[in-house]
Amino acid sequence: MKLDRIPLIGQVINSGADDRVFDALLLAGPLVVVVLALVGRNLVTEGLAAAYLAVFVGYVLYIGLVH
Amino acid sequence: MNGTAATVGRDIGRMLEALGGLVLVTAFVALVWSEFYVLPALVVSAVVPLGIGYGLRTLFADADDPGKLHGMMVAAAGWFIVAVFGSLPFLLIAWTVELDPAVLAAPAQTSTLAAFTDPLNALFESMSGFTGTGLTMTDNEAVLPRTLQWWRSFIEWVGGVGVIVLTTAILARPGSGSLTLYESEARSEKIHPSIVSTVRTIWWIFVLFTFLSITLLWLVGMPIWGAINHAMTGLATGGFSITDNSIATYDSVAIDFALIPIMTLGSIAFPIHFLILRGDLKNFYTDLQTRWVLGGFTIGSAILWAMVYFGGVYDSAFQALRYGLFQFVSAMSCAGFQTATGDISTNHANVALGTWPAEAQLTVVGGMIVGGAAGSTVGGIKLIRLATLSKGIYHRITDVFYPESAVRRLQIGDRRLDESAARREFEEAAIIAALWFVFLGVAMFVFLLILPDGVYTLENIVFEVASAQGNVGLSAGITGTSMPDLAKVTFLFNMWIGRLEIIPVLVLLRAIFKRGGAYR
After folding, report:
1. Quick check: A56 and B212 CB within 8 A?
2. Contact B351, B340 (CB under 8 A)
3. Residue B63 in contact with residue B6, Cβ under 8 Å?
4. B494/B492 Cα distance (integer angstroms)
5. Facing residues of B412 across strands?
6. Gap between the Cα atoms of B169 and B192, Å rounded
7. What element of type H or E holds B18?
């Protein structure tokens, strides 16, 4: 089954910047927020939040450099 | 029923259906927070616009596609009607708690929530939310039910991108009609050739940035509920808060500085975000508006810092930087978050905006009037018009120094406009700027007439009116439930015309008065 045929996920993949990393960040966003809300603040969740932001910033810089 | 009414009615029906859907989403939040007593009010608030919307859309299903006139009338009437129906959750939840039916086990009434039993206050809050203004009728947001805290943030978040953009994204209708409506909602830039693809990409970017903003705010110490709400209202440059004292409640340097990039993201046009996400980072400095946004934030903040530091408002250079930078970015991005809220007589570490020196308040007003980039979530006149006006005026003046036969072009960003295109764009920018100041003047006149003598200074009134019309939401202390009803109605009008850049509202009013025979 192709991912872009799944409702909602398909819409995310077919919109935006046509980039799988950004699509993945968008789809992971709700999960990250739910984890932060349910688990609360600890070293692991702070690491998760920092990693989420770092992947975005790092990837924007990376594609900017290779563009 | 004539063709115009059918077209307008059909498209307003679609907007009302989308609004009903938003209320149903909010019911989920009520369930999460176990605020079951709000559910009947939310169901009514959803069913009424859904029913009316469905009726209008079905009745006028065969209406023609909207032309330019219809588009403007749909935008103006639609935004007003959405604000009216969007006030139902405020009104009905407030009355639910006021009447306290035993079966619902509602909590005790608070003076904050009781303010919304007045329909005018509920409408004010709704209009302020949808237009992304952020001026509020509440005196302590922290005691509102979580459902209403969410509803305030949610309508600002949706309003930041646009109700029509939302409707087009959900109820996709390819064709020229969608483009006309899109353009009538103070947007013109397209990301893709298809308008439906464009609005879906706008939402894609907006949702991604929202999750990033929530994560950033949480990481710097904001509790998760605050992070969710403030990320939504910060990115939408709306400025509603869930705390008693806006962002000042947290009194955190890290949170203050984390909100700066979030408000900045909201001030940059979506097509530029799209290009940057495709790796074209040079748009940060090659795009005229983005360059001016970043330059405006830097220069304005530096001037404000100098005024509040050397003017003796703050004792330390860092405090002056912290509050000056935040408040200027908050003003020019039209977010309206407030950190400068303290009492100057007791606290020199944080001084309320309304007691800053007149020149500092007027500097903030300058930022509020100009706003950020067209095609973003901000209000104000917009930087592209400031650029068009300033370059156009220079072009006209220097024209005298060239021979009559000279062929000159007006360069705005990467576009080189010929004489007729330059004249058309300059004229449009001049008309909107002139109308902007006319309506600012009218509102100031009303406020000078109706506010009690000696309580507020002229700069306070200029500040508050510019804040309402620029959809900013910073307050010098005038806005509140105790404000005269005429002042609330005046601000309702200012917020409405500010969001739609005036012309569509004037077109709607002309059509209403002409058809009603009020003149001619």
Report:
1. yes
2. yes
3. yes
4. 6
5. B415
6. 14
7. helix B3-32
Distance CA B201, CA B181 (A): 17
Cβ burial of B397 (10 Å; 0-12, 13-18, 19+) is: exposed
Judged by CB atoms closer than 8 Å, whether chains meet at A17 and B224 is answered as no
User: Among B201, B210, B212, whose Cβ lies nearest the Cβ of A15?
Assistant: B201
Q: How far is CA B414 from CA B240, B287, B391, B430, in A?
A: 36, 8, 13, 21
Report, as an integer, the average pLDDT of A26-48: 97
What is the model's pTM? 0.93
HSE of B134 in the Cβ direction (CA atoms, 13 Å)?
Answer: 40
* Cα–Cα distance for residue pair B13/B56, rounded to 1 Å: 5
3-state SS assignment for residue B34: coil
Report d(CA A5, CA A9) in Å as an integer: 8
Q: Assess contact for B334 and B237: CB atoms under 8 A.
A: yes
The Cα–Cα gap between B12 and B9 comes to 5
What ipTM did this prediction achieve? 0.95
B contacts of A55 (beta carbons < 8 Å): none
Residues near B304 by beta carbon (within 8 Å), at least 6 away in sequence: B324, B325, B327, B328, B360, B363, B364
SS3 category, B147: helix
pLDDT value of position B170: 67
Question: Residue A64 is nearest to which of B214, B274, B279, comparing CB atoms?
Answer: B279
Alpha carbons A13 and A6: distance in angstroms, whole number: 10
Residues B371 and B383: beta-carbon distance below 8 Å: yes
Give alpha helix (H) positions in B400-484.
419-450, 458-469
Phi-psi category of residue B68: left, alpha or beta, with phi > 0 → left and psi -120 to 50 → alpha: alpha
Which residue in B456, B507, B518 sits closest to B484, CA to CA?
B456
What residue ranges of chain B have pLDDT lower than 50?
A: none
Chain B contact set for A63 (CB, 8 A) = 278-279
Contact between residue B16 and residue B49 where contact means Cβ atoms under 8 Å apart: yes
Nearest to A37 among B219, B224, B279 (CB): B224
Answer whether A49's CB lies under 8 Å from A32's CB. Answer: yes
- The domain spans of chain B are 3-187
Q: How far apart are CA A32 and CA A55, in angstroms?
A: 13
Residues of A in contact with B278 (CB under 8 A): 17-19, 63, 67
Q: Which residue of B has its CA nearest to A9?
A: B204
At B183 the pLDDT is: 73
Residue B349: Cβ within 10 Å count: 12
| Tens digit of each residue's pLDDT (9 = 90 or more) over A1-35 | 677 778 778 878 888 788 999 999 999 999 999 99
Q: How many CB atoms lie within 10 A of CB B91?
A: 20
d(CA B76, CA B506): 9
pLDDT of residue B174: 59
User: What pLDDT sits at residue B518?
Assistant: 56
